[in-house]
Amino acid sequence: MAEKPFFVGYLSVPPGLRAFLAVSALCLVALFAFVGWTVATTQADPMPGGFSGRQTLTGVLSVDPYPWVHVTTGSDAIPAGRPVLLSAPGKSGVAPRAAGLDGQVVEISGGGLRRGDLDLVQVRGGARGLSPVEGASAPALRHQDLGRWRLTGEICDGKCYAGAMSPGTGLAHRACANLCLIGGVPPVFVSTKPVDGEAFLLLANADGLAVTEQLLDHVALRVELEGRIERRGNLLVFRAAPETLRVLP
Amino acid sequence: MSVKYVPVQWNTNKWIYDAVVILAAGLFLWLFIAVAPGFLDHERPITPLMNRARAFGMCAFLMLTAILCIGPLARLDPRFLPLLYNRRHFGVLTSLVALAHAGLILDWYYGFTAPRIAKLEGVLIANQSYAQLLGFPFELFGLFALTVLLILAATSHDFWLKFLTPPVWKRLHFLIYAAYAAVVAHIALGALQDQTHPALAALTLVAATLVAGLHGWAAIRERAPARAGQTTDLMPIGPADTIADGRARVIALASGERVAVFRDKDAFSAISNACAHQNGPLGEGRIIDGCVTCPWHGFQYRVTDGCSPAPFTEKVPTYRLELRGKELFLDPRPNPPGTALDPVRLGQM
């Protein structure tokens, strides 16, 4: 029987092993190339959404449940009548800056984000980003109660969902979404079926105010949630009852 | 082998080994990051930083899978032993790739917080759904695995092996299996949940099954029956002339220890099967220049006294042999490491 080659690391590779090791090395490199290519080219589509450019808009500010503006003087991208959610740069909201401006006409300026019928503006710092328009009279917003609904969908942070992250949904993104919500970015409920023509709803608690951190355990999951839906201007607000939340398989 | 510590004992084989590993990982990352995005027909591109984070994460998983396959492969087929020789460099590189993945994720998902939350603190507080499987903070599995990888990389040097002692060092490095399980959980509860294509799930399953399967297969193959009850009496271990020159027969004792009975021309000697360096299987080694040479890292011991040749100081226990006719008998009681014994010789009664 032929003697099997014996490898010692600090000596030359025995001739009988060289071909085997060369083939092993090639297989390793080929395996890495195959797996890298396969995983990279089968990644899920992050879906539409993204930055819509610098926006300067005027509108009526509402602070509940989260700051948003009913646009009265819009831009090409965001015409008058559209609702726009607001956030500050990074993972933070604008509630502290919006306090005291509820119901007033304001000018907002910042980078726009759009996904479907969801618009969000990341307002700039200081008065250039958010300031009241002196002397302007605010038109009254239409409030309409659409009744009690049971919806299926996903709780997301409005900013990443609108396109700040790509992808900005799903369980891998969950911690980021939670940090956004902790920072005050408006949460949105993305319904699997449109409600009165809209796919996303601004999420509020049963009293129409900001949600509690209780909902953080259910972000990025497919859930069923009940509550009243009301239309404020052209924005749907989902006044969800947390006790009705059910995680779906 | 070395009598002094140097950062890396480079030699030609290590250079080639490292080059192959870097080529494989580099090709993986290049294809993932630079080439594949151009072939995706997504409505909107994946954020490049996110794509890089995924590339480094998956590359680290594949590298760890390859590393864990080397051990059982080498036990099943000795031709794979050269892949074991420089595995620690593979491990250190893997920990760096995993660190890059973690850094990118921390910067992207845990950055830009207001009020300011430290990134690692963010990992701990952002998701506290410990009571649910779906939505469990899978990042913690990744954090655990990364911590283990970094500890193992930092201690993957013979200084630490000596400082911690081989048994402690070995137990510490067994944490790699816990780290691998954590990585699989990290992927399964994280990235896999957002997939619409089965490729990642299939690859993860194949990788984990391969690692578990190879280890199980190797364990079954190596399960030699212990010689129950024979703790003091001489044990018959078979005809002497069936052991090839320069090679050994490995005997499993009732105590669980293994003894390597070596033949050097017409002389027979027995030493512990466990190398003093990393418990490598000396019985699968060869006698080179009169010394048993470990198949893992080339540590050498004189076959007659279990001592490494000067200036090295490693020692292993020796065992007494008897030759009755052509039959070899082994005394299962070990002698203290480094005890010299005269070999028994064929023709000697």
Descriptive report:
The complex is a heterodimer of chains A (249) and B (349). By secondary structure, chain A is of the alpha+beta class. Chain A has 2 domains: 50-132; 143-247, OB fold (Dihydrolipoamide Acetyltransferase, E2P). Helix content of chain A is 19%, strand content 38%. Chain A contains 4 helices and 12 strands; from the N terminus they run H-E-E-E-H-E-E-E-E-H-H-E-E-E-E-E. In chain A, a hairpin with a 2-residue loop joins strand 4 (105-115) and strand 5 (118-123). The longest helix of chain A is centred in the first third of the chain and has 27 residues, at 15-41. The relative contact order of chain A is 0.15. Chain B has 349 residues and is of the alpha+beta class. In chain B, 45% of the residues lie in helices and 13% in strands. Chain B is built from 10 helices and 11 strands. In chain B, the strands form 3 sheets. In chain B, strands 2, 3, 4, 8 and 11 form a 5-stranded antiparallel beta sheet that branches. In chain B, strands 1-10-9 form a 3-stranded antiparallel beta sheet, with no helix packed on it. In chain B, strand 2 and strand 3 (258-264) form a beta hairpin. The longest helix of chain B is centred in the first third of the chain and has 29 residues, at 48-76. The radius of gyration of chain B is 25 Å and the shape is elongated. Chain B starts with 11 loop residues before the first helix and ends with a strand. The model of chain B has no long low-confidence stretch (mean pLDDT 91).
